[in-house]
# Entry
Amino acid sequence: MKKFSTKDGLPTLEVYYVHEDRKGYLWFCTDHGLVRYNGYDFKIFTEKDGLTNNTILSIHEDSKGHLWLFCLNAPLTYYDGQHFQPFSPDEYNAREYIGGEIKLLNDTLVMRNVTKNKTYLARFPDTFEEDNPVAHTTDILGNHYLLEKNNVFFIYITTEKSISGQKRINHTKQGIWINSDIHYRSALKISQNRIFLHNNRNLLLTVNDSIYYQGSLDIKDKPVNILTVYKDNSDILWMATNNGLYTFDPYKAKITGHYFPNEFICSIIQDTDGNYWLATRDNGIWLMPSFPIRTIRPGKIARENKFTSLKTFNDILYAADISGQVYMIGPNYQLLPQLNKEILKYHGIFESEDFHFDTASRNFYIGKYPYIYNQNTHIISKPRYTLASMKTMLEIDSNTVLVGTGAGGFTINSDFSDKDQKNSKRNKSEK
# Structure
Protein backbone atom coordinates (compact mmCIF):
# COMPACT_ATOMS: atom_id res chain seq x y z
CA MET A 1 0.00 0.00 0.00
CA LYS A 2 1.30 3.43 -0.95
CA LYS A 3 0.45 6.46 1.17
CA PHE A 4 0.40 10.09 -0.02
CA SER A 5 0.78 13.14 2.18
CA THR A 6 1.51 16.83 1.83
CA LYS A 7 5.18 15.91 1.50
CA ASP A 8 4.32 14.14 -1.78
CA GLY A 9 2.47 17.13 -3.20
CA LEU A 10 -1.06 16.95 -1.81
CA PRO A 11 -2.26 20.40 -0.71
CA THR A 12 -4.06 18.93 2.31
CA LEU A 13 -4.63 15.61 4.06
CA GLU A 14 -8.42 15.98 3.89
CA VAL A 15 -9.71 14.32 0.70
CA TYR A 16 -13.47 14.26 0.04
CA TYR A 17 -13.57 12.06 -3.06
CA VAL A 18 -11.20 10.02 -5.25
CA HIS A 19 -11.82 9.11 -8.90
CA GLU A 20 -9.77 7.23 -11.51
CA ASP A 21 -10.60 8.42 -15.03
CA ARG A 22 -10.52 6.46 -18.28
CA LYS A 23 -6.91 7.54 -18.93
CA GLY A 24 -5.71 6.21 -15.59
CA TYR A 25 -5.29 9.56 -13.84
CA LEU A 26 -6.29 9.77 -10.18
CA TRP A 27 -8.32 12.83 -9.17
CA PHE A 28 -8.54 13.97 -5.54
CA CYS A 29 -11.27 16.35 -4.37
CA THR A 30 -10.05 18.58 -1.54
CA ASP A 31 -10.84 21.91 0.05
CA HIS A 32 -7.64 23.32 -1.49
CA GLY A 33 -8.51 22.55 -5.09
CA LEU A 34 -8.72 19.59 -7.47
CA VAL A 35 -5.61 17.40 -7.57
CA ARG A 36 -4.56 15.15 -10.48
CA TYR A 37 -1.99 12.38 -10.04
CA ASN A 38 -0.34 10.86 -13.14
CA GLY A 39 1.60 8.16 -11.34
CA TYR A 40 4.64 10.35 -10.80
CA ASP A 41 3.62 13.74 -9.47
CA PHE A 42 0.63 15.87 -8.46
CA LYS A 43 -0.91 18.85 -10.27
CA ILE A 44 -3.24 21.15 -8.37
CA PHE A 45 -6.09 23.05 -10.07
CA THR A 46 -7.68 26.02 -8.27
CA GLU A 47 -9.90 29.00 -8.98
CA LYS A 48 -7.03 30.51 -10.94
CA ASP A 49 -7.45 27.65 -13.44
CA GLY A 50 -11.20 28.18 -13.77
CA LEU A 51 -12.71 26.33 -10.82
CA THR A 52 -15.77 28.01 -9.35
CA ASN A 53 -14.60 27.16 -5.81
CA ASN A 54 -11.49 25.53 -4.37
CA THR A 55 -13.57 23.14 -2.25
CA ILE A 56 -14.53 20.16 -4.45
CA LEU A 57 -17.04 17.72 -2.98
CA SER A 58 -17.22 15.04 -5.68
CA ILE A 59 -16.32 14.26 -9.29
CA HIS A 60 -18.15 12.16 -11.92
CA GLU A 61 -17.13 11.06 -15.43
CA ASP A 62 -19.38 10.33 -18.44
CA SER A 63 -18.67 8.01 -21.39
CA LYS A 64 -16.91 10.77 -23.37
CA GLY A 65 -14.47 11.51 -20.57
CA HIS A 66 -16.10 14.75 -19.42
CA LEU A 67 -15.64 15.39 -15.71
CA TRP A 68 -18.44 16.91 -13.62
CA LEU A 69 -17.35 18.74 -10.47
CA PHE A 70 -19.47 19.64 -7.47
CA CYS A 71 -17.93 22.69 -5.84
CA LEU A 72 -19.05 24.03 -2.49
CA ASN A 73 -21.49 26.96 -2.78
CA ALA A 74 -20.72 27.36 -6.48
CA PRO A 75 -22.19 26.40 -9.85
CA LEU A 76 -21.86 22.90 -11.24
CA THR A 77 -18.58 22.81 -13.19
CA TYR A 78 -17.38 20.62 -16.05
CA TYR A 79 -13.90 19.83 -17.40
CA ASP A 80 -13.55 18.98 -21.11
CA GLY A 81 -9.90 17.95 -20.86
CA GLN A 82 -8.57 21.48 -21.37
CA HIS A 83 -10.75 23.99 -19.58
CA PHE A 84 -12.94 24.25 -16.47
CA GLN A 85 -16.24 26.03 -17.07
CA PRO A 86 -19.38 26.61 -14.98
CA PHE A 87 -22.34 24.71 -16.37
CA SER A 88 -25.43 25.74 -14.44
CA PRO A 89 -26.75 29.13 -13.38
CA ASP A 90 -25.45 30.45 -10.10
CA GLU A 91 -28.64 29.71 -8.17
CA TYR A 92 -28.35 25.98 -8.95
CA ASN A 93 -25.18 25.32 -6.99
CA ALA A 94 -23.71 22.41 -5.12
CA ARG A 95 -25.32 23.17 -1.78
CA GLU A 96 -28.65 22.07 -3.28
CA TYR A 97 -27.37 18.50 -3.46
CA ILE A 98 -25.50 18.08 -0.19
CA GLY A 99 -27.20 15.16 1.54
CA GLY A 100 -29.11 14.28 -1.63
CA GLU A 101 -28.75 11.77 -4.46
CA ILE A 102 -26.10 12.19 -7.18
CA LYS A 103 -25.90 9.63 -9.98
CA LEU A 104 -24.63 9.40 -13.54
CA LEU A 105 -27.06 7.31 -15.61
CA ASN A 106 -26.61 6.84 -19.36
CA ASP A 107 -24.39 9.95 -19.55
CA THR A 108 -27.08 12.00 -17.82
CA LEU A 109 -26.15 13.54 -14.50
CA VAL A 110 -29.08 13.18 -12.07
CA MET A 111 -29.01 15.35 -8.96
CA ARG A 112 -31.82 14.75 -6.51
CA ASN A 113 -32.59 16.69 -3.34
CA VAL A 114 -35.35 14.73 -1.60
CA THR A 115 -35.82 17.31 1.18
CA LYS A 116 -36.50 20.16 -1.25
CA ASN A 117 -38.18 17.85 -3.79
CA LYS A 118 -35.99 19.06 -6.66
CA THR A 119 -34.34 17.08 -9.42
CA TYR A 120 -31.77 18.55 -11.80
CA LEU A 121 -30.54 16.81 -14.94
CA ALA A 122 -27.50 17.80 -16.99
CA ARG A 123 -25.87 16.36 -20.11
CA PHE A 124 -23.22 17.23 -22.68
CA PRO A 125 -24.53 17.60 -26.24
CA ASP A 126 -21.87 15.43 -27.87
CA THR A 127 -22.91 12.39 -25.83
CA PHE A 128 -26.01 12.12 -28.03
CA GLU A 129 -25.65 9.66 -30.89
CA GLU A 130 -26.56 11.07 -34.31
CA ASP A 131 -28.54 8.00 -35.34
CA ASN A 132 -30.19 7.50 -31.96
CA PRO A 133 -31.12 10.81 -30.33
CA VAL A 134 -32.37 10.59 -26.77
CA ALA A 135 -36.00 11.64 -26.42
CA HIS A 136 -36.20 11.36 -22.65
CA THR A 137 -34.48 9.80 -19.69
CA THR A 138 -35.63 8.44 -16.33
CA ASP A 139 -34.41 9.65 -13.00
CA ILE A 140 -34.00 7.62 -9.81
CA LEU A 141 -37.63 8.16 -8.85
CA GLY A 142 -39.01 6.93 -12.14
CA ASN A 143 -40.14 10.31 -13.44
CA HIS A 144 -39.36 11.30 -17.01
CA TYR A 145 -37.65 14.47 -18.16
CA LEU A 146 -37.14 15.62 -21.71
CA LEU A 147 -33.69 15.88 -23.26
CA GLU A 148 -33.40 17.21 -26.82
CA LYS A 149 -30.44 17.51 -29.18
CA ASN A 150 -29.92 21.05 -30.47
CA ASN A 151 -26.16 21.35 -29.94
CA VAL A 152 -26.66 23.10 -26.61
CA PHE A 153 -26.16 22.20 -22.98
CA PHE A 154 -29.33 21.20 -21.16
CA ILE A 155 -30.38 21.13 -17.57
CA TYR A 156 -33.98 20.29 -16.66
CA ILE A 157 -35.50 21.05 -13.30
CA THR A 158 -38.64 19.85 -11.57
CA THR A 159 -40.28 20.86 -8.31
CA GLU A 160 -43.66 20.04 -6.82
CA LYS A 161 -45.25 22.78 -8.94
CA SER A 162 -43.42 22.88 -12.22
CA ILE A 163 -41.15 21.44 -14.85
CA SER A 164 -38.75 23.87 -16.45
CA GLY A 165 -35.95 23.75 -18.96
CA GLN A 166 -32.77 25.70 -18.45
CA LYS A 167 -30.29 25.77 -21.32
CA ARG A 168 -26.97 27.51 -21.81
CA ILE A 169 -25.94 28.56 -25.32
CA ASN A 170 -22.46 29.99 -25.79
CA HIS A 171 -22.38 31.44 -22.27
CA THR A 172 -25.87 32.92 -22.69
CA LYS A 173 -28.47 31.75 -20.19
CA GLN A 174 -32.02 31.15 -21.40
CA GLY A 175 -34.89 29.69 -19.41
CA ILE A 176 -38.22 28.15 -20.37
CA TRP A 177 -40.93 27.59 -17.77
CA ILE A 178 -43.93 25.43 -18.61
CA ASN A 179 -47.07 25.99 -16.53
CA SER A 180 -45.63 26.85 -13.15
CA ASP A 181 -48.95 26.10 -11.42
CA ILE A 182 -49.04 22.36 -12.11
CA HIS A 183 -46.48 19.62 -11.49
CA TYR A 184 -46.19 17.35 -14.55
CA ARG A 185 -44.70 13.94 -13.82
CA SER A 186 -43.60 13.00 -17.33
CA ALA A 187 -42.64 14.56 -20.64
CA LEU A 188 -42.73 12.79 -24.01
CA LYS A 189 -41.12 14.06 -27.18
CA ILE A 190 -43.56 13.87 -30.11
CA SER A 191 -41.53 15.74 -32.70
CA GLN A 192 -38.66 18.22 -32.80
CA ASN A 193 -40.83 21.08 -31.52
CA ARG A 194 -43.75 19.23 -29.91
CA ILE A 195 -43.78 18.05 -26.30
CA PHE A 196 -46.56 16.25 -24.42
CA LEU A 197 -46.67 16.47 -20.62
CA HIS A 198 -49.08 14.92 -18.15
CA ASN A 199 -49.65 14.06 -14.55
CA ASN A 200 -52.45 12.04 -12.98
CA ARG A 201 -55.14 14.54 -13.97
CA ASN A 202 -53.83 17.08 -16.47
CA LEU A 203 -52.66 17.13 -20.10
CA LEU A 204 -50.48 19.75 -21.70
CA LEU A 205 -49.12 20.04 -25.26
CA THR A 206 -46.41 22.54 -26.14
CA VAL A 207 -45.35 23.64 -29.61
CA ASN A 208 -42.16 25.70 -30.03
CA ASP A 209 -41.92 26.04 -26.24
CA SER A 210 -45.38 27.64 -25.99
CA ILE A 211 -48.49 26.10 -24.44
CA TYR A 212 -50.72 24.94 -27.31
CA TYR A 213 -53.24 22.73 -25.55
CA GLN A 214 -54.13 22.23 -21.92
CA GLY A 215 -56.91 20.22 -20.32
CA SER A 216 -57.95 17.16 -18.36
CA LEU A 217 -60.03 14.02 -18.88
CA ASP A 218 -62.46 14.74 -16.05
CA ILE A 219 -66.12 14.10 -16.90
CA LYS A 220 -68.58 16.25 -14.96
CA ASP A 221 -67.94 15.46 -11.28
CA LYS A 222 -65.96 12.30 -11.98
CA PRO A 223 -62.16 12.67 -11.78
CA VAL A 224 -60.25 10.68 -14.39
CA ASN A 225 -56.75 9.58 -13.38
CA ILE A 226 -54.12 8.84 -16.03
CA LEU A 227 -52.19 5.71 -15.06
CA THR A 228 -50.10 5.02 -18.20
CA VAL A 229 -49.40 6.84 -21.49
CA TYR A 230 -48.14 4.87 -24.49
CA LYS A 231 -47.00 6.42 -27.79
CA ASP A 232 -47.50 4.15 -30.80
CA ASN A 233 -45.66 4.17 -34.14
CA SER A 234 -48.05 6.82 -35.53
CA ASP A 235 -47.38 9.14 -32.56
CA ILE A 236 -50.92 8.58 -31.27
CA LEU A 237 -50.98 8.64 -27.47
CA TRP A 238 -52.94 5.90 -25.69
CA MET A 239 -53.91 6.84 -22.14
CA ALA A 240 -54.91 4.10 -19.70
CA THR A 241 -57.18 5.53 -17.00
CA ASN A 242 -59.65 4.58 -14.29
CA ASN A 243 -62.40 5.43 -16.81
CA GLY A 244 -61.32 3.43 -19.83
CA LEU A 245 -58.89 4.03 -22.68
CA TYR A 246 -58.39 7.43 -24.35
CA THR A 247 -56.50 8.34 -27.52
CA PHE A 248 -54.95 11.75 -28.12
CA ASP A 249 -53.68 13.11 -31.44
CA PRO A 250 -50.78 15.50 -30.69
CA TYR A 251 -50.93 17.05 -34.17
CA LYS A 252 -54.65 17.81 -34.08
CA ALA A 253 -54.32 18.60 -30.36
CA LYS A 254 -57.50 16.81 -29.37
CA ILE A 255 -58.82 13.63 -27.81
CA THR A 256 -59.84 11.36 -30.68
CA GLY A 257 -61.36 8.38 -28.90
CA HIS A 258 -62.75 7.00 -25.65
CA TYR A 259 -63.16 3.26 -25.28
CA PHE A 260 -64.46 0.99 -22.49
CA PRO A 261 -65.87 3.71 -20.20
CA ASN A 262 -66.00 2.80 -16.51
CA GLU A 263 -63.31 0.14 -17.06
CA PHE A 264 -60.27 0.54 -14.80
CA ILE A 265 -57.27 0.09 -17.15
CA CYS A 266 -53.90 0.15 -15.40
CA SER A 267 -51.47 -0.45 -18.27
CA ILE A 268 -51.21 -0.73 -22.05
CA ILE A 269 -48.43 -2.14 -24.20
CA GLN A 270 -47.91 -3.10 -27.84
CA ASP A 271 -46.24 -6.34 -28.93
CA THR A 272 -44.03 -6.97 -31.98
CA ASP A 273 -47.07 -7.95 -34.08
CA GLY A 274 -48.76 -4.62 -33.44
CA ASN A 275 -51.35 -6.00 -31.04
CA TYR A 276 -52.32 -3.95 -28.00
CA TRP A 277 -52.57 -5.58 -24.58
CA LEU A 278 -54.53 -4.01 -21.74
CA ALA A 279 -54.18 -4.80 -18.04
CA THR A 280 -57.47 -4.20 -16.25
CA ARG A 281 -57.99 -4.06 -12.53
CA ASP A 282 -61.26 -6.01 -12.55
CA ASN A 283 -61.53 -8.04 -15.77
CA GLY A 284 -58.22 -9.68 -16.54
CA ILE A 285 -56.00 -9.10 -19.57
CA TRP A 286 -57.43 -7.93 -22.88
CA LEU A 287 -55.98 -8.43 -26.34
CA MET A 288 -56.82 -5.71 -28.86
CA PRO A 289 -55.58 -6.61 -32.37
CA SER A 290 -58.63 -4.81 -33.79
CA PHE A 291 -62.24 -4.31 -32.95
CA PRO A 292 -64.14 -6.18 -31.57
CA ILE A 293 -62.07 -6.85 -28.48
CA ARG A 294 -60.77 -10.32 -27.76
CA THR A 295 -60.54 -10.91 -24.03
CA ILE A 296 -58.15 -13.31 -22.30
CA ARG A 297 -58.99 -14.09 -18.72
CA PRO A 298 -56.66 -16.54 -16.96
CA GLY A 299 -59.51 -17.48 -14.65
CA LYS A 300 -59.47 -18.65 -11.07
CA ILE A 301 -55.66 -18.73 -10.77
CA ALA A 302 -55.45 -15.02 -11.59
CA ARG A 303 -56.19 -13.70 -8.10
CA GLU A 304 -59.51 -12.08 -9.08
CA ASN A 305 -58.11 -10.89 -12.42
CA LYS A 306 -56.69 -7.67 -10.93
CA PHE A 307 -53.72 -6.78 -13.16
CA THR A 308 -51.56 -3.66 -12.85
CA SER A 309 -48.41 -3.96 -15.02
CA LEU A 310 -47.42 -5.37 -18.42
CA LYS A 311 -44.01 -6.09 -19.95
CA THR A 312 -42.82 -8.04 -23.01
CA PHE A 313 -39.61 -10.05 -23.35
CA ASN A 314 -38.79 -12.31 -26.30
CA ASP A 315 -42.39 -12.59 -27.55
CA ILE A 316 -43.65 -13.50 -24.08
CA LEU A 317 -46.10 -11.19 -22.33
CA TYR A 318 -45.55 -10.87 -18.59
CA ALA A 319 -48.38 -9.53 -16.47
CA ALA A 320 -48.22 -8.61 -12.78
CA ASP A 321 -51.37 -8.66 -10.72
CA ILE A 322 -52.36 -6.67 -7.68
CA SER A 323 -50.93 -9.26 -5.29
CA GLY A 324 -47.47 -9.29 -6.86
CA GLN A 325 -47.86 -12.48 -8.89
CA VAL A 326 -46.41 -12.58 -12.42
CA TYR A 327 -48.08 -14.54 -15.24
CA MET A 328 -46.78 -15.44 -18.69
CA ILE A 329 -48.78 -15.50 -21.93
CA GLY A 330 -47.21 -17.16 -24.96
CA PRO A 331 -47.26 -16.30 -28.68
CA ASN A 332 -50.44 -18.33 -29.24
CA TYR A 333 -52.21 -16.47 -26.45
CA GLN A 334 -52.03 -19.42 -24.09
CA LEU A 335 -51.36 -18.99 -20.41
CA LEU A 336 -47.96 -20.51 -19.57
CA PRO A 337 -47.05 -22.03 -16.18
CA GLN A 338 -47.41 -19.53 -13.41
CA LEU A 339 -44.39 -17.90 -11.75
CA ASN A 340 -43.85 -17.29 -8.05
CA LYS A 341 -46.57 -19.58 -6.72
CA GLU A 342 -45.60 -18.88 -3.12
CA ILE A 343 -44.42 -15.32 -3.51
CA LEU A 344 -46.99 -13.63 -1.29
CA LYS A 345 -45.28 -13.67 2.11
CA TYR A 346 -46.76 -10.47 3.49
CA HIS A 347 -50.22 -10.14 5.01
CA GLY A 348 -52.09 -7.57 2.95
CA ILE A 349 -52.72 -6.73 -0.68
CA PHE A 350 -50.72 -3.96 -2.36
CA GLU A 351 -50.33 -3.14 -6.01
CA SER A 352 -47.24 -4.27 -7.87
CA GLU A 353 -46.32 -0.93 -9.46
CA ASP A 354 -43.47 -2.22 -11.60
CA PHE A 355 -41.24 -5.20 -12.13
CA HIS A 356 -37.95 -5.92 -13.82
CA PHE A 357 -36.69 -9.02 -15.63
CA ASP A 358 -32.97 -9.74 -15.26
CA THR A 359 -31.93 -11.38 -18.54
CA ALA A 360 -28.67 -12.67 -17.04
CA SER A 361 -30.08 -14.45 -13.98
CA ARG A 362 -33.52 -15.08 -15.54
CA ASN A 363 -35.07 -13.70 -12.37
CA PHE A 364 -37.81 -11.17 -11.73
CA TYR A 365 -37.59 -8.26 -9.33
CA ILE A 366 -41.07 -7.25 -8.28
CA GLY A 367 -41.83 -4.00 -6.47
CA LYS A 368 -44.49 -4.45 -3.83
CA TYR A 369 -44.79 -2.24 -0.77
CA PRO A 370 -42.93 -2.69 1.51
CA TYR A 371 -40.94 -5.53 -0.07
CA ILE A 372 -38.85 -6.15 -3.14
CA TYR A 373 -39.25 -9.73 -4.36
CA ASN A 374 -36.83 -11.87 -6.35
CA GLN A 375 -38.78 -14.92 -7.49
CA ASN A 376 -39.73 -16.65 -4.22
CA THR A 377 -37.44 -14.63 -1.97
CA HIS A 378 -37.85 -11.12 -0.68
CA ILE A 379 -36.15 -8.42 1.35
CA ILE A 380 -37.83 -5.61 3.18
CA SER A 381 -36.82 -2.19 1.93
CA LYS A 382 -34.86 0.24 4.07
CA PRO A 383 -36.87 2.01 6.81
CA ARG A 384 -36.89 5.33 4.99
CA TYR A 385 -38.54 3.67 1.97
CA THR A 386 -41.27 1.73 3.78
CA LEU A 387 -43.82 4.50 3.46
CA ALA A 388 -43.47 4.70 -0.31
CA SER A 389 -44.40 2.24 -3.02
CA MET A 390 -41.91 1.01 -5.60
CA LYS A 391 -42.07 3.25 -8.68
CA THR A 392 -39.60 1.86 -11.16
CA MET A 393 -36.77 -0.60 -11.71
CA LEU A 394 -33.85 -0.16 -14.09
CA GLU A 395 -30.96 -2.51 -14.90
CA ILE A 396 -27.78 -0.42 -14.54
CA ASP A 397 -25.35 -3.21 -15.40
CA SER A 398 -25.29 -7.00 -15.50
CA ASN A 399 -25.14 -7.22 -11.70
CA THR A 400 -27.10 -4.22 -10.47
CA VAL A 401 -30.75 -3.18 -10.46
CA LEU A 402 -31.72 0.38 -9.51
CA VAL A 403 -34.99 0.57 -7.59
CA GLY A 404 -36.88 3.87 -7.45
CA THR A 405 -39.43 4.60 -4.73
CA GLY A 406 -41.54 7.54 -3.77
CA ALA A 407 -38.96 8.47 -1.14
CA GLY A 408 -35.71 7.82 -2.94
CA GLY A 409 -33.68 5.23 -4.82
CA PHE A 410 -31.45 2.34 -3.86
CA THR A 411 -29.62 -0.45 -5.66
CA ILE A 412 -29.54 -4.22 -5.24
CA ASN A 413 -27.25 -6.90 -6.64
CA SER A 414 -28.62 -9.47 -9.07
CA ASP A 415 -28.07 -12.02 -6.29
CA PHE A 416 -30.40 -9.81 -4.27
CA SER A 417 -27.99 -8.47 -1.67
CA ASP A 418 -28.70 -4.87 -0.75
CA LYS A 419 -26.10 -2.32 -1.93
CA ASP A 420 -27.62 0.62 -0.12
CA GLN A 421 -25.34 0.40 2.91
CA LYS A 422 -22.28 0.71 0.69
CA ASN A 423 -23.78 3.68 -1.12
CA SER A 424 -24.59 5.36 2.16
CA LYS A 425 -20.93 5.13 3.22
CA ARG A 426 -19.87 6.63 -0.08
CA ASN A 427 -22.30 9.52 0.28
CA LYS A 428 -20.88 10.28 3.70
CA SER A 429 -17.41 10.49 2.22
CA GLU A 430 -18.72 12.87 -0.43
CA LYS A 431 -19.99 15.19 2.23
Notes: The mean pLDDT is 65. DSSP finds one helix and 38 strands in the chain.
